[in-house]
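Input.
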Amino acid sequence: MQQSGVRPKGAAVDYIKNFNLNAGGPILKNRLFYFAALNDQRTAVHFVGFPSPTWRGAAEPDTTNITSVLANPTYQLNSKNRFQATLSRQVYDKINRGADSSNGTQDPESVWHEHDVLAVYQGLWNLVLTDKQFVDTRVSYNSINFPLNLKTDKQTLLDSTNQHPHPRQ
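Output.
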């Protein structure tokens, strides 16, 4: 069976871990408040065909680690002015992208390492003009970094459909 890509841990889940932490409340009574959250999730899964039957190293699992952080402070200047910030960041780290054999049978040295960072930063100002009118002002910055990096120079950089080179990261 190992010759066809089935390893002793064929399609087994090594682990799934999830940690959450949330906190919030007043810092200054009726003026300054906060909320913060952290989520950390880690998984390791074995796929049939990864590593390939010819791989002589250890049967490395496909791991995915996701860490998310959120911070949300609010400042109430007076009954008509409120300031708020939102800071959110997520890191997605997939060490063996392609291990599920979607790209054919792979080895740990010939798959992609994906390390994504997604971030949102936002500032908000609310101003009450009258009991029927208010101003809502927001400024945001969003950042998405989605790199795929080859883990070795042994994998071809040619597009198999037309033999043209892929641009290197």
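The first strand starts at residue 13 and ends at 28.
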